[in-house]
Fold each of these.
Amino acid sequence: MGGVIQTFYGISNLMNDAILFFQRRTSVSHSITPLKIDSTEAYPFLVFPNKNLFDNWHQEVKFRLGLPKYGRNLKSGDVYQDYIVQKFANWRKHPNKKDERVFCGKGRNLPKDLIDKEASVKYKFIEASYKDLEEMGFIKDNPDIITREIYTYNINHTQEVRTLTPLQVERSWCISPEFNAEFLLTLQKKNELRNKYIFDLGPLENGNRISIYFDKEDLLCYRIIDSIGKAYIMRFSHDLFDKEYQLNFKFAKSDSKSYMEFYINGKLIANQLFNYRIPYFSYPNNQVFIGSNINGTYCSKLRMFFADIYFIRDSNKGVIFNYDGRNNNEIFISNDEIIGYKDSSYHFMRR
């Protein structure tokens, strides 16, 4: 099944430009300390009155980081300078075409005097939070759902693991095809009243979508939105932050039954059986995101060591997405960072 990279450019923009902003991330030690919360989490965006002012600011960013103002391929002393500059180039227009405002991610590596009060007067930008952008109409995470079924669970204390464990499936039967998502990761808390996505797959916000995220109350949610806009949500109270776990999610449907299942460290935590077919369809143009929703705007905070997203059809495995950083000590660190895939290669991007 093919995949499509999407970034802050949004669904309707050309992919050729977006792909230029992806860089491969180098390996990081498995013993890395947790990321610290700083002011960029409260106000991680900059909003400009128009694209021209953003361009002027962005050219200054490139100049200050030792890169040419124009498109010559000049390497600087810091191997990450290209990477750093390109992530700020990833801007987004307002959905209302009459509104000329644009926004971009602020990031942690910008020179401080390019985001201080004097710079804001010069380039006329303001700092913004997720709530600010929602109120301005730039972003939203409110799928047009016709109805929903919510199933609540409580996860008891679970031991941390560092290796993958075979699943202890309690069913004696299986539906084909079966969707599977397997992760080995550490989840970290973000003090923000919004949804924080761990995984998202689907062609649309409100149909044929599979999502794993923390909601505004930091409850872990596993959600299926079917083809007619109905949501099925497994919702878990938990104590999963800042520990390494293996998490597995399953979903399958047939003419007469469907199921959703959630496992931690190979053990079944919750299952929901439906005595009817959930109308869900998978499409070749499905977008796949780790650490973000399908619009690339609602991100989580995590460290991921392994991910395997696939379908099982008649005992045959069809890979949707696979990432393994265990043997070479590569881990994907997300804090408003997105991983996508294209043609079996990995592409990393920060706002």
Amino acid sequence: MDADELCRKLTEYSKYENVNVRRAVAGSNNLHNIPEECAYEILSRLSEDDDEGVRWDVARNEDIPEHCACEILTRLSNDDAWGVRLVVAGNKSIPEDCACDILTKLSRDKKNVYLRREVARNPNIPKDCACDIFTRLSEDDDEYVREGVARNPLYAKCR
């Protein structure tokens, strides 16, 4: 199947009524194999889907094409559902262009300890902001957040 045909199929599937079909597209690693505009359109639609599980699968997808990853993951880092934000916090493929903004914001979420824990455990925090994030999280009230910092291999570079 060529890229244009794959684009048509994935676009069609991303609009299916069946949530499991939309979730399969949201987590697909085929999005690099279609034209950029098509991947962007599909991911934009699915990142605003009414179903939290679809948005969760987009946020968890570590194969989002780089040309749209920052916009999509930034949008999802502001999602109303904390589970979607949690998966963004743990996504190891957040592009460096936006990772500091996304992870810093999520690490400051005082209402949700799980978000802070997931940021503390993320092994791909850019060095530009890692020490600031780790400094803040190493003083967190939650012991598991502090443990996540201590176990993160990047933390050693900040001491």
